[in-house]
Records
---
Amino acid sequence: MSAVLECRDLWKVFGRRSATVEVLRGIDLTVAEHEVVVLIGASGSGKSTLLRCVNLLERVSDGTIHLDGTDITDPRVDADAFRQRIGMVFQSYNLFPHLTVLDNVTLAPRRVHRRSKEEAEQSALELLARVGLADKAREYPDRLSGGQQQRAAIVRALVNSPRLMLFDEVTSALDPELVGEVLALVSDLRRDGMTMVIATHEMGFARRVADRVCFLDRGVIAEQGPPEQVLDDPVQPRTRQFLHRLVDADQP
């Protein structure tokens, strides 16, 4: 399968001079078409920063990012045009509170892709129906549960038919009883063949949806492989230590 995403020797440094922090330190990552790569690691390990760099929300300090073979970190490329081919869903939903769910979902198709109102709304309503939100299309975000808001945010990213989907801890802001409905939707996307990179702290979910799990530690990919290998029989001591801490945290 061809590579949809390629990160080569990716560095991201925040700060200046002596007060710099290296958040990403030489990341190499290739994601094939239809592959689901799950990023795990402690807070501050670089998962969210990596996703933000891929979506060009953060400028990389060094290295390159290729989308379907094109270097999108080249300053001569139209970043907005490539960003339209990448869907990103944040942990905090980021829905516009003054717009209805339908208007949130159709905003980009109408304003950016210049689709007619009728065409944009038809596509949006079909997707909202698929995720069980058809009856919420005319509601405002504050009338929805957290799980419903997150599903609406996912539909907003999907409506533009992205080449690549990025998910940044999409369940971390949800109550435990709402987590399942969002994870089920992401699992459906996997069955549809969507290419995805997912940062999560839900190890059960990682095991279920990942083709490959990457453990990030202090800005590097310390270990990667099939979920059954990384999660059940990790090679690196740091990976084992991280997973043991998760198990201990779940103990009553």
---
Amino acid sequence: MDATRLRSSFETVAFTTAVPFDRSDGAVDHDALADNLAGIYEAGARLFVPCGNTGEYYALTDEERVAVVETHAEATGDEATVVGGAAGNVREVLDLAAEYEAAGADALMVMHPDHTYVHERGLAEYYHAICDGTDLGVVIYKRGPEVSRNVLIELSERDEVVAVKFAVDDVKEFAQTVQDADGAVTWINGIAERYAIPFAIEGAAGYTTGVGNFVPRVTLALFEAIDKEQYERARRIQQALRPLEDLREEPGAGSSIPNGNNVPVIKAGLDLAGYEGGPVRRPLVELSDADRERLESHYERLETWTPSRA
């Protein structure tokens, strides 16, 4: 897929997918994953991001990551775009990129740097080296201050950089970065439905979703309303989804670390929707009984809710 088509493929909802693990031996359940993907594709999803944080990237081996990307490429239709996540040093990222390309991926999402120490110039060179070493389209994932405005502005000029996933809840910084960057990248809101409206107004052509794994029709209705500038309707849909996002950002029972519920909510939601979520891997834990009851209540309300009447 050429760069122009790739950029346009990000002008939608990016489904950051969860990986179901077998409940008996903990291995990746590829049959269940394929069924999950077929369900959200049928609901209208066309942009899939496997091996991201929702996909428990850091709990997977490289072999599992490649196999998960391959399942995405095989289980989704010809109209789908598959963007595999990768992290680590340049060689590690490029080795994964090559295997992802062979597995059928269209693009590579470079995860937010996990290095303890970074330098702004060195970080820009890191991304340049990745762009130089792969034929896949490159997506830069910003999740903190390390990936600075200067770095994004510079990298936006690369033809290989097709999108930026901006996952920081700073609309002012996002707006200024979009204004200052002259490149043709597609800007996407990387913090899901909660900020979809203000980021769209400031230049985000799409947004990522986790809850879309199990309520795809609702989040796609939100995108449609924003795309048509039906902002009052969009606000009502966003407010209907917000309890799920609130639950995801909680630390979970017995923890003080934010967002511990993030992935467990998605996996439990898949189970509620008739798909297969499966267990999480360490260092995550399952939802508490109380949080699971709250999730069930929110899901039951959304299951009978009609976005077209929002």
---
Amino acid sequence: MDHAIRFYKTGGADVLRHEGIDVGEPGPGQARVRHSYVAVNFIDIYFRTGRYPAALPSGLGSDAVGVVEAVGPGVTGLKPGDRVGYLLGPQGAYASARVMPAEVLIPLPDGVSDSTAATLMMKGLTVQYLFRQVYPLQGGETILYHAAAGGVGLIACQWARALGVTMIGTASTDEKAEIARAHGCEHVIVTSREDIAARVREITDGLGVPVVYDSVGHDTLMASLASLQPRGTLVSNGTSSGPVNIDTTLLAMKGSLWVTRPAMVHYATPRAHMLEMARELFDHVLAGRIRSEPSRVYPLADAAEAHRALESRRTTGATVLMP
């Protein structure tokens, strides 16, 4: 029998239930995918806790990799046996298998393993749209990137290095700072003992940076704004420490700053564009410029423990589930 993680009420990790499911056959425009790895992302916690709405009862998870088992009528370009991944579509990736819209499935190239791909579908393509679309980096810039030792952050460290960008990262501990440096982050600010904005100004000879990528949110907002050059851009791409509320008058006072809150769905569609994003990402992987493997692997049934580890900030790199 196949299994999935579901939750019937919002709350702590203990609301997650490991249940038997009937996956069924794919209908028109659909494919059934047998998962090999399922990614765990901080956004999953937002759905579980109710910060992001979900119709209950609900599945959980947005991205996974695996093999196509069957395709429905009208599906072209995919066949049983194809290795694929995905990051768009309905919640429910925490499962051993599921039926998905074929249009969101991304073929995996030879040379990119399932375990690597599982860390890249959401996390790697997040870096792609942050660095190549939201605020397109050309090379030569100095940027500030929060949570540099996280799953997205370690990919960002490597992508910045590949672009010739000087990355200033933040990390909560010296251990995490060393991990970020080892992945290409040139300067790391340890937030437990250093003033973020003061260090940014010191590193940049008082100029500040043109862009800050901030997935932390509430706790880092003021430091992010204080680190920017006049007319600089704050990319608020997450709220792991709490929501962000900005008085627009403050943006003028800080230097006529820009703020954007991007969402993947608006950058990864239509399908042709999503496939081009994936091609650029996989080119870096195949060339050895980006290396990524799971730092922690949990059985699907232990999804609650994976969430507890992520929420406690005990993790670095990517966490995945294995059905």
---
Amino acid sequence: MDKAIIARAPGGPEALDWVDWTPPAPGHGEVLVRHGAVGLNFIDTYFRSGLYPWPGEILIPGSEAAGRIEAVGSGVEGLTVGQRVAYTTRTGACCTARVLPADRLVPLPDAIPDEIAASIMLKGLTAQYLMTSSFPVREGQTVLVHAAAGGVGLLLGQWLAAKGVRAIGTAGGPEKTALARAHGYAEVIDYRAGDFVAPVMAATDGLGVDAVYDSVGQDTWRGSLACLKPRGMFVSFGQSSGLPDGFRLSDLAKGSLSATRPVLFDFIADPAELRTRAAELFAAVAEGTLTPRVGKTWPLAETAEAHRALESRATTGATVLLP
């Protein structure tokens, strides 16, 4: 019998149950994937809590996973039973097996194990589109990245450094700041020790940064704007501390700033674009540009405990759930 993590109503981690689960047979254009590993992300907590709309009567959280194809429906080309694949979706990954549209899957190179693949599909593709599309970086620029010791942050630090971009990060505590420095950041500011704006401005000789990649939200957005140089870009791509309450367009007037609130799934909706971005991600891993870090693994059955650890900021790097 297969198993799944489900929630029947929005709530805290206690809303999650480990239950028997029977995935349907794949239909036309669909594939059944048996999971080898499932990634954990803040977006999972947003759906579980009700911050993001539920996709149905019950919720199966989980937004990235890797495994093998177990069955193929009619009309599917280019994918075969036994083939290793990975994917990212908004929900539905926290189960031992599931059915997905074939065009949401990307073939997984043999050199990338399931645990690593499940840790980089959402986070790695997020880093890729942030740098190439939300604010396309250029060599010699300086950017600020919040949550630099998190899953996306550690990938961004390495990738930005490889592109000749000076990255300043923020993280909480000596352990996390040291981890971020070891992953490409030129400077890392401990936000627990005080305000981050003054150190950022000092590090840039008062000029500010070209862009801020902010996944924290309420606790950081005002400071993020204050760190930007004139005509800089505020990229708000998450809200781990809550939505940026009180933000107004007039806040951008000082310095003719720009702001964007991108969502990964708008950048991979087209299957060809998904494959192109995934190919760049996998190549960066294969070449050693990126060294993904799995900070901790949990049994899939203990997803609720993993949610608690993530929300309390007790994690570093990526967290992976094992069926």
